[in-house]
Amino acid sequence: MKVIAAICAVGLLVLAGGTGMAAEGDKEGKADAPLPQGWPKLTDVGKIEVKAYPAYRTAVAEAKGSFEKADTMLFWQLFAHIQANRVEMTAPVINTYDDEDGKSEIEMEFVYRQPDQGKAGPGLGKVVVENREAEDFLTLGYRGGMNEKAFQAGLEKLRAWLKEQSTWKEAGQPRRLGYNGPMTPVEKRYWEIQIPVVKEQQ
Question: Can you say whether the dihedral through the CA atoms of 37, 42, 43, 46 is positive or negative?
Answer without folding.
Answer: positive
